[in-house]
Amino acid sequence: MGLLVGKTAVVTGASSGIGAALVRAFLVEGASVVGAARGAEGLARACLLPGLPPALPVPTDVGDEGAVARLFATAVATYGRVDIVVNSAGTLVRGPIEELALADWEAALHINLTGVFLCSREAVRVMLRQAPASGGVRGHIVQIVSGSGVHAWVGAGAYTAAKHGVMGFSDTLREEVRHRGIKVTDVLPGMVETSMTDHPDFAEREKLAPEDVVHAVMAALTASPRALMKRVDLRNLEV
Ligand SMILES: NC(=O)c1ccc[n+]([C@@H]2O[C@H](COP(=O)([O-])OP(=O)(O)OC[C@H]3O[C@@H](n4cnc5c(N)ncnc54)[C@H](OP(=O)(O)O)[C@@H]3O)[C@@H](O)[C@H]2O)c1
Predict the structure, then answer these.
(1) Nearest residue CA, atom 25 of ligand 1?
(2) Is 194 in the pocket of ligand 1 (CB under 6 A)?
(3) How far, in Å, CA of 69 to CA of 74, rounded?
(4) Along the chain (239 residues), what's the average pLDDT of each consecutive run of 10 residues?
(5) Which residues are known to be catalytic?
């Protein structure tokens, strides 16, 4: 408890699954938290944790440039700085490639890749403007990618393309900002028990829990200031 006291975190995809679990954990650790997702009701629910100050819900479509700028402006106006950004918003598009509609392909790339770009760009703009915290770190961006960021996922070509794109973007981002005090960590979970995987096709699979991903994110966030955890490849022990 108390590992993130004095820190402000922005979490996208905060209304469900991994993002909602991150909001809970960050509040428990004492952070000020700004949660973003499109659906206002689910987001408001996820931002409330009995006995703790709530997270600030800011309904946001991560694919909307203006909305993302407003999200970060609200975080800075409310809490003064942004120390941690976790990009967890995402959508799973599946189907054999010969049946994949262009609109579905574009949605997969827009939310999963362009959304990460827009939020990371805004994060960097804010972090570069703020003074480093003790240890010289200005901020930390964590991308919730997927094993399909580095492996093929047969039947999920658009999702896999987007996640591979996130890896290339994030590797480049890391090298652009690391000498200016900003850490970038990619977390690549295997299958996790959330609404995204609540489908009979995945019923027999051994999955991680959202809290397992939270644990990996916390390990990256609490590494010593001079240590940069670039990538966490996370799998269920049985898979
Ligand atoms: N579950 C897995 O097996 C697994 C494995 C590896 C990686 N991941 C990745 O982990 C991340 C979180 O997934 P999850 O399993 O927690 O899924 P989830 O339970 O379906 O949650 C997805 C979240 O993203 C939000 N979202 C979707 N589109 C958005 C948009 N355009 N703008 C803002 N928010 C948006 C959703 O809220 P709204 O719909 O209200 O916007 C929701 O809060 C995703 O990036 C996913 O690809 C998941």
Answers:
(1) 13
(2) yes
(3) 9
(4) 96 98 98 98 97 97 98 98 98 97 98 98 98 94 98 98 98 98 98 97 95 98 97 96
(5) 159
